[in-house]
Amino acid sequence: MSKYILSTRPFREEFIRQMREISTDYQFVTKDEIHDSFDWNNVEITIGWSKDWRDKLLVPSTSLKWVQAISAGVDTLPLKEFAQHHIQLSNASGLHAQSITDHVLAILFMQSRGIFEAIRSQQKQIWQSELTINNLQDLRILIVGTGKIGQQLAKCLAFLNCRPIGINTNGRAIEHFHETYSIVELAPQTQKADIIINILPLTEDTYHLYDDDFFATMKQSATFINVGRGASVDTTALYQALVDHSIHFAALDVFEEEPLAEDDPLWMLENILITPHISGYTPHFQKSFMRIFIENFKSFHTTGNLSKNTVNIQSGY
């Protein structure tokens, strides 16, 4: 009886063939191929995760040994239960680094050149030549989160003659960052920043990290960008800061509740950019993702362990 690799989504035949070349012991199955007689006891690996699988796979008799997450963030997964059943977890960290970098750079260029103001004036048919214009390299850009995405963004900013500042857990130096500080120094660094970009994973420590106190610390002329996790931001606090103009602008790609409700007051603000969680959209996703999975599958098949993007279930990243 074959062991199963159960996936939340289909993949092209070329990648299924690569799996078979590594081992013929496994059969690739998508969630749409599950039938009444499906033997859940034979599922040893999943690609992605569905909450509908919890009662089938997170049981004392489970054969599940490894979950390969499709996203970089794993905060929505049942991590405590994975730990209880000694299930290995890997993520897709780095897969979206360039896409999210491109998204943030687009915002930075539009913000520094006054393009958002120009669009609003165009919609009102107003010839407004007095726009807020800055040289990007003159702005102090604070990147909160110096993982693979933060590093790629910092690399591109450094190429543009910017001097990005990084925040991480302990302030360790990271390539491409002009300076780095620990998370306990976030407030004093926030006071000096013109642009603050959140790329942190969601953990107990980062839930509502950006609250009333944080936004009160920001410069009135500063911009806040969130391409990390929506629940890192206290939405009520951010809304009030934007309404009061105690901060200049916000660009949000992630939200505490998605999709953002049609009657959410954020929609009515002029000093905000709302995008529908698209910053990580990546061309050629399957090819990029399968580089991670196939490498891990080879390692798992030969050693029982993973070689790439292993997640520490206790810390959540």
UniProtKB/TrEMBL annotation:
Q: Where is the signal peptide?
A: none
Tell me the ranges covered by the D-isomer specific 2-hydroxyacid dehydrogenase catalytic domain, including all copies: 15-306
Q: Which CDD domains match?
A: PGDH_1
Q: Which residues form a coiled coil?
A: none
Q: Which UniProt keywords apply?
A: NAD, Oxidoreductase
D-isomer specific 2-hydroxyacid dehydrogenase NAD-binding domain: residues covered: 106-279
Annotated PANTHER family: 2-HACID_DH_C DOMAIN-CONTAINING PROTEIN, D-ISOMER SPECIFIC 2-HYDROXYACID DEHYDROGENASE NAD-BINDING DOMAIN-CONTAINING PROTEIN
Question: Belongs to which family?
Answer: Belongs to the D-isomer specific 2-hydroxyacid dehydrogenase family.
Q: What is this protein called?
A: Hydroxyacid dehydrogenase
Q: What is the lineage of its organism?
A: Bacteria, Bacillati, Bacillota, Bacilli, Lactobacillales
